[in-house]
Design a protein that fits this description.
With 187 residues, the protein is mostly helical. The chain is 81% helix and 0% strand. It comes from Rhizomicrobium electricum. Pfam families: GDT1.
Length: 187
Amino acid sequence: MEAFLVTLGAVGVAEIGDRTQLLALMLAACYRKPVPILLGIVAATLVNHLAAGAIGILLADFLQPRILDTIVAISLFVMAGWTLIPDKDGMKPDCSARNVFLATLWIFFMTEIGDKTQIVTTTLAAGYHSLIPVVAGSTLGLLAADAPVVFLGNAFAHRLPLKLIRMVAAAIFAVLAIFFAIKAFGV
């Protein structure tokens, strides 16, 4: 349960102001069909984060616990710094697409590759050595951050205190990094 809740919180906060959230906003403005957009986001995230989590588990199987915890701690410290940097607009959707679900699935999947939330999913799956709770947490966390943007669009997105949210997200990543560093070195 801890792996699920930590991942849910970490990914949910990390997604706010992230390039994929900006993409969700652009898709909502472009297509104005929230249900197929959200279904496409969920499908793309599940596939992407299942792969990311599986890679994390594979890495965990080959590394000693102390080395793995050190790598997780360093990765989370890097994520804390990366979170403080605002994202710019990502890929722009083709508003002429006929199948909103498939268009969303494809563009969201491609944009999520190498994204903060994907890396967090890989890192936490390795750290907790748990695939399903981490992927469930990352998918629901991402959806929790993106669903309001898809339904409420520009009016909601411009009211978020993104700088403050990025600072809180960075602090959460730093705390998680410290937790894994303590776990690695028994301090």
